[in-house]
Amino acid sequence: MDAGAAKYRELLSGEPNSSTLPKNASLENVLPQISITDFQKTNSLQDRANSTLLLALEELSNNVPLIIRDLRELPQESTQYMLAECFAKKGALEQYCPGYTTEDFLKYIKRVWPRLQDISFGVVDPKGTVMGVATMADEMDLLDLSELASKDIHPHLTNVYEYLGSLVERAKDRLPQTHRRGVLLDKFLYGVRLNAMSSSENLYVMYFLMKETHRRAEERGFSYSVSQNTHPFTQALAAFFGSERLLTDCPHNYVNHANEKVFSFIPEKVQVTVDLKTYSTKA
């Protein structure tokens, strides 16, 4: 285990760093407060330069310094663990599964990690602590995710990727069918450090990750990016950044290839969306 992994696990049991705050102050009191609802009400960046949300995001950007690092520059083990824990404990399709652990998801992340090195990145604070990670790849590098999730992996994860694959299949008539490199960016796993920031900071970091993702996609010349969003905030961010919603589904009702209702433990309120972003670089 690298030193970063040990440090991260130790930090999880502590309080957010408040060394720069005055006495009796907290991050919640100092920083502007934003919520998922704010993003849901502000549908797009277009023509909203003076909106309350964008002003709050600007203030957060001045007070929550984030430094972008390519994935290959980040400490591998601690970054993988952070991402696995984020999904195992907070993921809409993972947190409700009885007996499902961080280590179960970590095994899969390690398996797919080599596919994610080219475009993925993370953000660190001025001390070098990883605060968030955004993983993505050309769709041509992730065509066999369901197969990767079926080899010596927790059966719940196998069901998850079979389910997500079924959503893409349902939306295929509205997805680009070029099947060549450099056209469709697959937005894979996004996560932030748990128990380390205020709720507003968490939202800001995820917003920052998504903004940088779209910048990288355009810089690399991708025509589209696609995501299967399982959290209300990433769904709100998809709309905020101008993605088209291809479908919305309730995983609670999903029946797999063996005619089994494998997600009956997931609350019916949980929804999953497939969202497609089109870039100006589109031919």
* Residues in helix, %: 25-40%
CATH topology: Aminopeptidase
Main sheet: strands, sense, barrel: 7 strands, mixed
- The outline comes out as globular
Give a written overview of the molecule.
It is globular and about 50 Å long. The protein has helices spanning 3-12, 27-30, 36-41, 52-63, 76-90, 102-112, 145-148, 155-170, 199-219, 232-240; strands at residues 67-70, 121-124, 130-138, 184-192, 224-229, 244-249, 272-278. The chain is built from 10 helices and 7 strands. The protein is of the alpha+beta class. Strands 1-2-3-4-5-7-6 form a 7-stranded mixed β-sheet, sandwiched between helices. Mean pLDDT is 86; it is low at 1-27.
In short, what is this structure?
This protein has 283 residues and is an alpha+beta fold. The protein has helices at 3-12, 27-30, 36-41, 52-63, 76-90, 102-112, 145-148, 155-170, 199-219, 232-240; strands spanning 67-70, 121-124, 130-138, 184-192, 224-229, 244-249, 272-278.
Question: What key attributes describe this structure?
Answer:
alpha+beta, 16% strand, Aminopeptidase, 7 strands, 283 residues
Write the layout of secondary structure elements.
Elements: H1 3-12, H2 27-30, H3 36-41, H4 52-63, E1 67-70, H5 76-90, H6 102-112, E2 121-124, E3 130-138, H7 145-148, H8 155-170, E4 184-192, H9 199-219, E5 224-229, H10 232-240, E6 244-249, E7 272-278
Parallel strand pairs: 4-5
Antiparallel strand pairs: 1-2, 2-3, 3-4, 5-7, 6-7
Helix pairs in contact: 1-5, 5-6
